[in-house]
Recover the amino acids of this structure.
């Protein structure tokens, strides 16, 4: 059993233990080889899981199959028992599993081969290829988190028939189960392989959060063989068993009310909060040509997701699937006080339409949605989209607007830069300043998100005249470094793929500045700062930007993917026509000099007020906390301190240099009314100094003070006052601003 749930992924390489016993194989040349085994495992461990007993006794004959006289596996309370014959002309095996912890599936799935069909169907929600340290390529992965699935699994199964035409039945039960902390009142499944080679199943899940269920039942053809020969040859070599009319499929799905909690457990980005639901779907036809139909009703529902600042409430939905087409009769929900989301229309599942007349498509109308997409966008979204074509290959058109918010240009990581030297390009020096490449922001951040969206559809979606408007009150922010006001219009055409999109339009940079530690460059208000998109360049716009400072000017004219190579820095007034272009080493010296001037006053003291817009006090504010234990009271104060600031490198990312900052700390403890102690650490003359103070109240007029400091040594003082002395907070002074 496991003493605790494993915190890391487990692989086959983590399985440890010892075997003992005998294995025999005998036969003749060119004849069948028969094997017998009697093996016992000891001290088996897999991460924090331990197996006390592993015992296998039986034999194998190529004509008769595998016979288990006994197979036992004990791991804590879990028990696995297998006995009987399998993989031969006559199968009569029995399986029993009890008290198996479902949390172990988190690790088991990490060592199973990935299923490409499942990956395509479910995207990255359930299964995805992974290549972890020490793992194998192509392995499957299930949703992360110890709370994804829990409970104890009980399985009873019987295997009959033959290896060529297997039969059998299996029953699954889960006790004390939960999916992503959503407890299950009932979880049971039954499945069987019938004599006419049909696979039948019945699954019933009931959440404990209220009345409702998820039911799945059906019958499909079973065309697989358990013959060792066919298993080795692969699925493509397996024969198709059964008559032609056995290809029909019948699958029914029913979801009622709180059963939506379980569906949302499979989609961690969506959380069903309340409401009623009644969903009934049927699949008929054949495997090669399935026919989907059904209807879904949702009433007065509330759904939350991390992308919306407020839940989607008062949601009413009526959706039908008929003749292989999706009909959205109603989808109406509110977001906040004024926002709403409405969807209506119809769309065929695939090209051909399945008898659907007209080409209205599905219309999506969104108004006043307050989005909160981490590291991407925070603000208001409005739009009206029309989806035509088919669900398999949709065509997206319409218009959208992002306004009253912030677009975050989050860096994807900057490698450590070399020291500036003769012959280095301007681009290399600017990279060493920690300013991320815009091409990285577009190629890695935007393209990465688009690729993730693209995997959720079978074929690529196509944009046809999709208009995107930016502004008003919209800013693009690179945290602590760049802050621009942006506006403009872009039209998107082409396949939804970062390499195939064809945008056209202009983004204007209305105002803003760039902070480089002590240097602040602002957009030149007299210059048409902009980024121009043309279809042939895709997501690589042409930049035309002018930045100015009191004695420095920067100009960027060229493609975003190589903006550093198109950057020209020069000295002179921002509005002066006569400027002198600088070499890379001269640029480095200017930034170094400005950093020194900003941080030091004439007498050598630190001058934080001279820093650029983002100051150290903003990044590291004063922190104070206090509490009481019995008669003892304590107070803890910390505030930023800087030592050895002259050693900061002006050519590296300014926020990587914050590792040189330290926190001045003050701890105050008072025991009753007579004893008080203080320990303070703070910067003094570029060094960290420690100061100890102990006050003891001898009587109303007399008290003792003991001071100890790394700079001034130790002193003992007796203080007397005819008016009386009292321990007060002011005795300690104001050590932090």
């Amino acid at each position: 059993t496991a003493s605790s749930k494993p915190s890391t992924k487990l692989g086959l390489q983590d399985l440890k233990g010892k075997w003992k016993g005998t294995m025999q194989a005998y036969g003749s040349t060119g004849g069948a080889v028969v094997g017998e085994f009697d093996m016992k495992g000891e001290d088996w461990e897999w991460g924090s899981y331990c197996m006390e007993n592993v015992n296998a006794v039986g034999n194998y004959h190529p004509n008769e199959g595998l016979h288990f006289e006994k197979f036992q596996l004990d791991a804590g309370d879990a028990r696995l028992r297998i006995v009987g014959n399998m993989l031969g002309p006559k199968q009569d095996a029995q399986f029993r599993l009890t008290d198996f912890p479902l949390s172990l599936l988190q690790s088991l799935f990490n060592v199973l081969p990935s299923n490409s069909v499942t990956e395509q169907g479910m995207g990255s929600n359930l299964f995805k290829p992974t290549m972890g340290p020490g793992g194998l390529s192509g392995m499957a992965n299930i949703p992360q988190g110890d709370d994804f699935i829990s409970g104890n699994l009980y399985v009873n199964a019987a295997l009959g028939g033959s290896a060529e035409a297997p039969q059998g039945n299996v029953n699954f039960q889960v006790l004390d189960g939960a999916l992503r902390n959503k407890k299950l009142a009932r979880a049971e499944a039954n499945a069987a392989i019938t004599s006419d080679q049909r696979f039948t199943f019945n699954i019933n899940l009931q959440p404990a959060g209220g009345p409702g269920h998820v039911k799945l039942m059906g019958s499909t053809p079973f065309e697989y063989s358990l013959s060792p020969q066919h298993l080795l040859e692969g699925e493509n070599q397996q024969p198709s068993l059964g008559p032609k009319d056995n290809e029909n499929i019948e699958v029914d799905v029913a979801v009622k009310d709180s059963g939506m909690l379980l569906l949302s457990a499979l989609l961690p980005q969506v959380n069903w909060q309340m409401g009623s639901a009644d969903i009934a779907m049927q699949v008929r036809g054949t495997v090669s040509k399935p026919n989907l139909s059904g209807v879904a009703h949702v009433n007065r529902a509330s759904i939350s997701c991390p992308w919306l600042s407020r839940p989607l409430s008062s949601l009413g939905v009526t959706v039908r699937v008929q003749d292989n087409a999706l009909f959205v009769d109603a989808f109406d929900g509110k977001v906040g006080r004024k926002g709403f989301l409405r969807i209506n229309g119809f769309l065929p599942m695939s090209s051909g339409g399945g008898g659907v007349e007209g080409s209205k498509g599905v219309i999506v109308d969104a108004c006043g949605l307050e989005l909160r997409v981490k590291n991407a966008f925070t603000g208001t979204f409005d739009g009206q989209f029309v989806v035509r074509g088919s669900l398999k290959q949709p065509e997206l058109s319409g218009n959208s607007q992002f306004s009253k918010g912030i677009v975050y240009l989050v860096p994807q990581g900057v490698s450590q830069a070399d020291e500036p030297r003769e012959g280095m390009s301007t681009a290399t020096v600017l990279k060493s300043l920690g300013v991320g490449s815009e091409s990285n922001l577009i190629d890695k951040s935007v393209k990465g998100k688009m690729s993730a969206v693209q995997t959720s559809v079978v074929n690529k979606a196509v944009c046809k005249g999709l208009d995107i408007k930016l502004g008003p009150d919209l800013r693009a922010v690179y945290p602590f470094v760049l802050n621009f006001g942006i506006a403009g219009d872009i039209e998107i055409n082409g396949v939804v793929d970062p390499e195939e999109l064809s945008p056209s339009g202009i983004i204007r940079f209305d105002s803003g500045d760039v902070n480089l530690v002590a240097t602040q460059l602002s957009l030149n208000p007299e210059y048409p700062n902009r980024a121009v998109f043309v279809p042939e360049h895709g997501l690589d716009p042409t930049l035309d930007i002018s930045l100015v400072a009191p004695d420095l000017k920067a100009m960027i004219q060229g493609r975003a993917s190589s903006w550093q190579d198109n950057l020209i820095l020069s000295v002179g007034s921002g509005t002066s026509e006569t400027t002198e272009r600088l070499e890379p080493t001269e640029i480095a010296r200017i930034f170094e000099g400005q950093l020194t001037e900003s941080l030091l006053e004439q007498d050598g003291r630190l001058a934080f007020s001279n820093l650029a817009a983002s100051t150290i006090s903003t990044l590291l504010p004063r922190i104070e906390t206090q509490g009481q234990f019995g008669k003892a009271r304590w107070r803890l104060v910390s505030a930023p301190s800087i030592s050895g600031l002259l050693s900061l490198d002006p050519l590296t990312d300014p926020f990587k240099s914050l590792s040189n900052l330290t926190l001045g700390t003050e701890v105050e403890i008072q025991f009753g009314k007579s004893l008080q102690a203080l320990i303070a650490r703070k910067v003094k003359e570029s060094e960290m100094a420690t100061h100890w103070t102990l006050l003891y109240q001898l009587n109303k007029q007399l008290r003792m003070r003991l001071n100890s400091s790394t700079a001034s040594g130790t002193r003992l003082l007796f203080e007397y006052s005819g008016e009386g002395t009292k321990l007060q907070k002011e005795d300690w002074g104001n050590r932090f601003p």
In short: Residues 438-454 form the longest helix (17 residues). The mean pLDDT is 76. The longest strand covers residues 462-478.
